[in-house]
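Exercise 7 asks you to align residues with tokens for two separate proteins.
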Amino acid sequence: MPHMINDISHIQIGGRKSKLAVIQSELVKKAIEETSNIPCSILALSTLGDKVQTQPLYTFGGKSLWTKELEILLLDAIDEFPKLDVIVHSLKDMPTNIPEGFELGCIFNREDPRDAIVMKQNSAYKSLKDLPKGSIVGTSSIRRSSQLIKNYPHLKFESVRGNIHTRLCKLDDENNEYSCLILASAGLIRLGLSDRITSYLDDMYYAVGQGALGIEIRKDDEKIKSVLKKIEDKKATICCLAERSLMRYLEGGCSVPLGVHSDYNEITNELVLKGIIVSPDGTKYIEDEVKSVIKERQDCELIGITLGDKLKAKGAKEILDAIDMNRNINARPTEV
């Protein structure tokens, strides 16, 4: 009979049905079973966001698409679906304002947060600056495309949706004009596809929470919290809480071109948080950074707000206010 913590005899994990999401749920399952010796089961569900691959995310709900259907099961079992104890998300897909009744129970296992260049198979090119003028780069985010237009004005950027394997098939298809894709390196690494990474975009700010896993729970579920405390990634937690605070303060969603870079020194306890906001056409951008010693979680919230104020003082709000996500979609040079 397994040893039980706080009388928990089993934990039901929920997540999306994509191959990457299942791998992420399995990472959490393994960690809980090893640290608390509590058996876990995984329920993998297709969400609306998985099913609709033809439209930019911001046109039909944004980040909440990935979370709402699973959150229902945190509250109660429905038909053949069991009640969940935790939901495993890619943290960058979690809204910064979590609905009432739920909370972010833990931040776990941040893989490399950088964006990566994946060139077409057998391509002679290694970096974006080497690509010929007019080459087409596939990316699914305004954050990426707006920074890339700023840095590489000789290239064209076009939307590409689908899971990672679908995107790679599109890239390698001889009939497609994509020269390369920009993808989060974390997903490629977790899927065992790190060999497809041509190079890393070290000069680009990444998405809030990119590479980390967020574990959502029922609010004030102290028994589950005590289990998750054992698998929490301290460095990722501090960095990602600060990143999410910045996004929340600027009222940004997954379609807003906010990029971040965070670095936490576990010896000095100093956190450096950098942020950039770029207009979708890449013509305007504002960036700044804040350094602060982190003594408690509240300090992560404060550093995000402090950086938000610095960006606002430079005109970030004007860029954000000028972006209308639901209008003139086809007229814009990029899409999510």
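Second protein for Exercise 7:
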Amino acid sequence: MTQMINKKPREEENQYCFACGRKNPIGLHLEFHEEGDTYTAMYIAPPEFQSYDGIMHGGIVSTLLDEIMGGYLYSKGHKAVTARLDVRYRKPTPIGTPLKIMGWIQSRRGNFIDMCSTVSLADGTVTAEGTAKIAILEEEL
């Protein structure tokens, strides 16, 4: 007799993810989209994520960069974790302004994927850049 494993559909998993979880009352509620080989999301930060007057906290900016990269791999069926994250803050990221977050694969070597990401203003000005080495734990979830 075969035992059935009760596994939730993927859309029901991780509903409390800080970045994309629909049920997380204090989360970012990011909605990701593919644009060719790039993963994107739009975001407007509320005043609760402010650091200094009118400027988004750097930890939230870092989270946006990390999540766009990891989320891209998750959408492709990979269970993965960030092994290393580097962030370069180029300009202050404003609160209450539409932002575009983008992530893409730079290269792959074995179970490690090198990725890049940016946060930019509507006019294309990049406020932060991220790179990450992400370890693949499982393929095709």
